[in-house]
Amino acid sequence: MKKNKPNTVIDEKLSFSEEIGKKEEQKLKTLHQHKRSEWAGLGTFGMVGWSVAVPTILGCMLGLWLDKNHPKSFSWTLSLMIAGLMLGCLIAWQWVAKENEMMHQDKEEEDE
């Protein structure tokens, strides 16, 4: 009785052609994908900077006003500057995390 050996050459050719097909699909998706410009990256960088700077400056301004009108044994300006900086960092962190999640969600949808 003769045993049928699997034809490994044909199997290898099929897996190789499937791999080539997947790579070609990825290249075509990349070509048709909407590309973000350098200006969009700079806009993102600016958005993160402003989201930290604005609360910090507002905290300093409020602190200066409080130091002038309601003096205490501690510095309102320094306290509110640190609070504004922390708030700004939290806002920037949440914004970057949201952008990252959207980017990965788009990547997963493309892979399907």
Give an account of the 3D structure:
With 112 residues, the chain is mainly α. 83% of the residues lie in helices and 0% in strands. It is built from three helices and no strands. The longest helix is centred in the last third of the chain and has 36 residues. The chain is rod-shaped. The two termini are 46 Å apart.
How would you concisely characterize the structure shown here?
This protein is mostly helical and 112 residues long. It has helices at 8-32, 38-69, 76-111. The protein is rod-shaped.
Strand content: under 5%
User: What pattern of helices and strands is seen along the backbone?
Assistant: HHH
- DSSP, total strands: 0
The biggest beta sheet is recorded as: none
Q: Considering DSSP H and I runs of 4 or more, what fraction of the residues is helical?
A: over 70%
Mean pLDDT: 82
How would the global form be characterised? Answer: rod-shaped
Uncertain segments are: none
- Please give the radius of gyration in angstroms: 28 Å
Q: Report how far apart the termini are.
A: 46 Å
The DSSP helix count reads 3
